[in-house]
Amino acid sequence: MQTVVISSKNPVKRAAAEQGFAAMFAGQSFTFETVSVPSGVSDQPMSDVETLQGARNRMHAAREAVPNAAFWVGIEGGCSIENDQLIVFAWVTVLSTEHYGESRTAIFTLPQEVATLVKSGIELGHADDMIFKRNNSKQGDGAIGILTHGAIDRTAYYVQAVTLALVPFVNPELTWK
């Protein structure tokens, strides 16, 4: 059985990795392990570049922490200001000894009440908790779940990006950078 190491103890990120791997490797069994590793970027990344770097840093730190695994997964959520609005997204990176893949989630816009707090330096999960009177929403439905009234929760939001990051792994006959 192959081990997949997720670079966060957040149950949302673990569940997303488990579902993505199940979708792309139907019939195969994996053991999933979580490790708490630093992102090496701001607690709340505020650009696409910084967010991708955080996912890559987490993935590499997970590999250092558990070097004998088969796969290492980095997931980092971030924000960016576009057209005077604060948008949210996450990057997913996956590494094995033979392949590397990455993908970004869809984006969505934050309401001004939350955006103002995030722009002032408050991490998105804490801003959500403050505005929506929640507790630890980033390990639950997250901003996406709150704003869609549960139509898409944070796990479902990440699953598609995990699945897409695994495309090079299920197409080894093709050339990937």
How does the overall form come out from the CA principal axes? Answer: globular
Could you give a short account of the major beta sheet? 6 strands, mixed
Averaged pLDDT, please?
A: 94
Distance between the termini: 27 Å
Describe the structure.
It is a single chain. The protein is α/β, with parallel strands linked by helices. The chain has a domain at 2-107 and 154-170: Maf protein, CATH 3.90.950.10. Helices cover 40% and strands 23% of the residues. It has 7 helices and 6 strands, in the order βαβαββββααααα. The protein has helices at residues 11-24, 48-65, 112-119, 124-132, 142-147, 154-165, 167-170, and strands at 2-6, 30-34, 71-82, 85-95, 100-104, 108-109. Strands 1, 2, 3, 4, 5 and 6 form a 6-stranded mixed beta sheet that branches. A hairpin with a 4-residue loop joins β4 and β5 (100-104). The chain is globular, with a radius of gyration of 16 Å. The two termini are 27 Å apart. The model has no long low-confidence stretch (mean pLDDT 94).
Topology, pairings included?
Blueprint: E1 2-6, H1 11-24, E2 30-34, H2 48-65, E3 71-82, E4 85-95, E5 100-104, E6 108-109, H3 112-119, H4 124-132, H5 142-147, H6 154-165, H7 167-170
Parallel strand pairs: 1-2, 1-3
Antiparallel strand pairs: 3-4, 4-5, 4-6
Helix pairs in contact: 1-6, 3-4
